[in-house]
């Protein structure tokens, strides 16, 4: 092993030198699976690069007895990983995009947003309720979710159910559901269950009419140092153009609303015939008040001659040099415009009350 500047190199038996790329990840099983999937893609594309995976615990993994929305820390699952990135202990970090705040600390950027897995939420039933749906569960059944966004939408849609906090990683939550009688069902992201290979536990996928998803849900993001041009270049091939544009619009919407973990904000996006559709909504904590609107924009590329993509430009934390800049600009504007539309109708008041009530809980 050789160190040269911030980089590590390794020499194999034949004297061939290759650069070591260190990938940081959380220690949970899902985080490891997600990181391995990105590492596998990079190995396929760059067979000569030597990849090393560095696992670490984050604050969010350590504080398990408090509802996420109460901890009040935007970078709950990301801070330790970013520290390692800053100190050159790792070269890139794989996150669930929905864990990354809409404004990243200076010096960091999202260098890749991978093709989105199913972004919807899923219902996982207690084995004794097999075959039921949220509609057919008995009156006052307790549903576990740690998300204000899910609870607000589902309380309104399924008033006969009772919603309670449940924390812990996927394994822990499923264990809490199966081993005790506290919960009739829990709500989890379909993407995580699928990546874990637990598709058979998905009893019901919630469509947008029941529950719209979180900003960035279902997409993986690769965070890098913004100044590392070669690493940025290397991971940029992982970008999925439609997912990038959808997530830029979603993140721009959330950023303009100043939403985060502690307020119920939900989205739904679609790319169809070169149009990007964004539906966004804000809710009171009990779901009784809500505002929801849809807007669209064209994301068809302008003529090649106009295509100037500034490598250094970040849009809501994302650097995507290989995707037409004007399409990214329009996606970002769509998110901000939709937020402004909701703010004009009173979204600020709904979110302020939600935040205050949540802080007081």
Describe it.
The chain has 361 residues and is α/β, with parallel strands linked by helices. The chain is built from eleven helices and 15 strands. Strands 1, 2, 3, 4, 5, 6 and 12 form a seven-stranded mixed beta sheet that branches. A five-stranded mixed beta sheet has the order 9-8-10-7-11, sandwiched between helices. A three-stranded antiparallel beta sheet has the order 13-14-15. A hairpin with a 5-residue loop joins strand 2 and strand 3. The radius of gyration is 21 Å and the shape is globular.
Q: Compute the number of strand runs.
A: 15
Large-scale geometry:
globular
Secondary-structure element series = EEEHEHHHEEEEHEHEHEEHHEEEHH
Q: Could you estimate the helical fraction of the residues in percent? A: 25-40%
Rg estimate, integer Å: 21 Å
Oligomer: single chain
Kindly state the mean pLDDT as a whole number? 89
Number of helices: 11
Lay out the secondary structure:
Layout: E1 2-4, E2 7-11, E3 17-26, H1 29-45, E4 50-56, H2 59-62, H3 68-71, H4 79-86, E5 92-96, E6 108-113, E7 121-125, E8 142-144, H5 148-157, E9 162-164, H6 170-179, E10 185-189, H7 190-195, E11 204-206, E12 220-225, H8 229-236, H9 241-257, E13 265-272, E14 275-283, E15 290-298, H10 325-344, H11 347-360
Parallel strand pairs: 3-4, 3-5, 8-9, 8-10
Antiparallel strand pairs: 1-2, 2-3, 5-12, 6-12, 7-10, 7-11, 13-14, 14-15
Helix pairs in contact: 9-10
